[in-house]
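Q: I have two molecules that I believe assemble together. Could you output structure tokens for the complex as a whole instead of separate predictions?
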Amino acid sequence: MSTVLSPELSSASTDHGVSQFLTFTLNDQEMGIEILGVQEIKNFTRVTPIPNMPECIKGVMNLRGTVVPIVDLRKKFNMPSAEYNQFTVIIVVNVGSRIMGLVVDAVSDVLNVAADAIEDAPDLGAIDTSFIRGLAKSNDRLVTLLDIEHLLTDNTATTLA
Amino acid sequence: MMQIDVSRFRAAFFVEAADHLQSMEAALLQLENAPRDIELLNTIFRAAHSIKGASTTFGIEEVGRFTHVLENLLERLRDGFLSTSTELVELLLTSIDVIEALIANARDNAPLPENLDVVFRELQRFNSQSSGERQDPMVAADTSFNSSRSPSTSGRYRISLHPSRNFFAFGQDPLLLLRELHELGTVLQIHVDDSQLPPLSEIQPEDCYLAWTIDLETDASEQTLRDVFMFLDEDSRFSVQAASTEEAAATTTSNANPLSPAADLSVSPAAASGFDDIQKGNDPMPRSSSEAKNPSKQRSGENETVRVDRLRLDELINQIGELVIGASMVEQELLSVAAGRGLESMSALGKIVRDLQEMSLGLRMVPIDATFQKMNRVVRDVAKKLSKQIQFVTTGDDTELDKSVVDQISDPLVHMVRNAADHGIEPPEDRIAAGKPAEGVVSLRAYQQGGNIYIELKDDGRGLNRQRILQKGIERGLVDADANLSDAEICNLIFQPGFSTAETVTDVSGRGVGMDVVRRNVESLQGSVSIKSIEGQGSTITVRLPLTLAILDGLLVRLTEEVFVIPLLSVIESICIRPSDIRSIVGVGEVITLRGEVVPLLRLHRLLNIENQQNFDEQVLLVIVEDQGRRLALKVDELLGQQQVVIKNLEANFRKVPGVAGATILGDGRVALILDVYGVSTLPSIDSQNTHRFKPLEA
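A: Yes, here they are, computed for all two components at once.
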């Protein structure tokens, strides 16, 4: 009945407020999403297109009997599209009660980030950065941490320059 | 003990209470025709008692208090102190509505029923009427529902309880019974008899060895005390004995077996509390003289059912659907390597899997009888209100339909039945004048034919007045004044929005919500509705519904590389034509001529924004579909076949997509979209040069 998970029970936030992020590449940029929201990672398979949808909606896929929409993150960020290759994967995420798939170039690793090592998203003026949770610096890497819920439920993010 | 999550049980209580109310209502309606049927009274009484007990447990005191008074009245009725009258049945039916409203109040904070006090007082009036000099102290003092009960003469009783060994196994708990007694009055003394208790080494922890004797001082009647024990299993024994004879005389008149002070302390419940208890333990199905359809039959069914969360059920059905796909994939792979005996075993397994799927889909099916029973009440109320004589007949009550279809058809059906009773059936004098029997007949029939369920509502009333409908249609601008309409077309005008034919708007129906709502509801269930009527002889409305919303008969078509499913229900035919047969209509669209009828052509590629590679075909393949009485020709690339598909909605993980009714998973694991024929025709064409938007029939 308790709503607050004790530290031992929570896999993502360990003793010192450290969160784990699954990192992936997208157009040579490194991004991360919180691992708690990740359900599984699948090889890219054929998706069924849905008519009259924004370009970033690739279509739907059968995930063990569930029809799951697939979002191409490159398209979502208006990046040039790339050929899908053997590294292209679909990260299946839970957004609220929904299941969605994200197409990314390749997954990298799992990154442990302490809460105080996350910097706020930079103010980019007119560009909406509300879907960016922050920037994580790890050694010489700079990883953009995405707020997946914001990204996939907020339609304004579709038109990111 | 009550620190556990009560809300879950409360939810279960609400569901159960609804069931009880329903069986009460059904029994009451039968009681009108069989006023002395003790079994019916017992059914009603038991249901009321269950509601009272459970609502008190969950702290829904309004329901408890109201039901208590109702129960007292029922008790008098059962014990013959009061005889069934139309007035009384009316009151009891209203009471059910009040309880329903009270429960809604507790559940969703719905407003309290307005007639609460009136009904409450009315119940009390009947109570005091029936008891003569004898008055239940709890009832006598109350005149308004909200006044607190005042204590009155209290009696002393010695109650003994000898639970059977396997008391717990029956789901009983002596502690609960003792608590209930405690709530009824003051326990003066309680004695535990542990003489049956074996040595510790021989104790069966699940057996009950103890017995109790309680001295209780209470205002409650002896019958109330007995009712505490009404659900004892047959091997358990109890007795209730008034401790003082003079008080006993004052409070136990209703008891069928007056106790002498010397009576044995232990009486079997059957002997003690009358007929209703005899059957309880060994026969959950009370026998009834009327065979056709009685609520008792249903009761026995209820005892054998398990309530399962709908989500879980859907998950199970989903998984089995996956199993089917998985199995067929294995089968195809075995075929490709010609695995001989492996293939044989696989096809055997495949059969089992398909049977399993069929069974799993059957899990969602429920008989329509409960819905039909509701209509009984509707007809009765209308008849009473308008002083009509109407006989209501149902057939095919055990026809099974998908639970969600049953849930959603109920409201439209109420509307139709009400219409039939209100507008259809004439007042007795008119009927006699027309040479018909004074009593009208409204009948509901359900039957299965192919993959569809048909519900037919028939009345022998005045039928539709074509002239008036046409006139009204013209008035409302639904048809042109000079239009030449067939009979069927005229009849179907009543399904147009804002159509109500009653000359006077009655209290019962005709509030502007009309048959168009019925049609929309039925069509949202992928069904259809039509009406036939002979003036002066009555009308028949036929509703066609799919057996289930979970599966759909589909025509698989190919558009370039994509497979789409067109619901077979709407498919009329498929034809091949030459491109030259397509006529362009001044830049707004294309049509073909099919046996003299002009049919709009929709290029699905354009509407669905799919690249079209076959622009210079010699032949054009068309699927002719019918939707809401209109024909459309859909251009496709190939027909792939007909298949039953399991419907998955897109909204679960995504959102509603215009022109798409849902998705399904094909045998090869691919997702195919199911076309919404109506929706697709309203899609804007991608090719702006050739935009043809069809105005929906009624925007």
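A: One point stands out. The longest helix of chain A spans residues 148-153.
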